[in-house]
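Data follows
____________
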Amino acid sequence: MHIYYTLSNFSDDGINIEFPGLDGAFTFGSDMHDALYMAKDLLAGWLINAEDDGESIPEPLQPFEIPVPKDDLLIPIEVNTEIYRLKFDNQAIKKTLTIPRYLDALGKEENINFSLVLTEALKEKFCV
């Protein structure tokens, strides 16, 4: 698990994100939800690329080490690179589960792909 801090500032067209201490780690979002999503995705990608290239991962700066301009926000972003790696490993695995009979009947009637429904529900549940 890694936690790094962003400097976030508002502009006319959205929110700019910078990771102090990580060279070239800048991103943007149209609103706060989008900006935080983009920040998490950028951080995971940055760290995974560094790991894969054999580079050392810089120690995260602590909040008191980061000068924060007047109108900026200091926001912590947490990522688990192991989970991100698994997220992009699309190998399917078989799961056995139990559902109520009536849901099974309704699903079959509607030609529901139960694996797809479960996958979509889990992605929504875990915000991935």
In short: Helices lie at 32-52, 81-87, 101-109, 114-126. The chain has a mean pLDDT of 90. The CA atoms of residues 3 and 78 lie 4 Å apart.
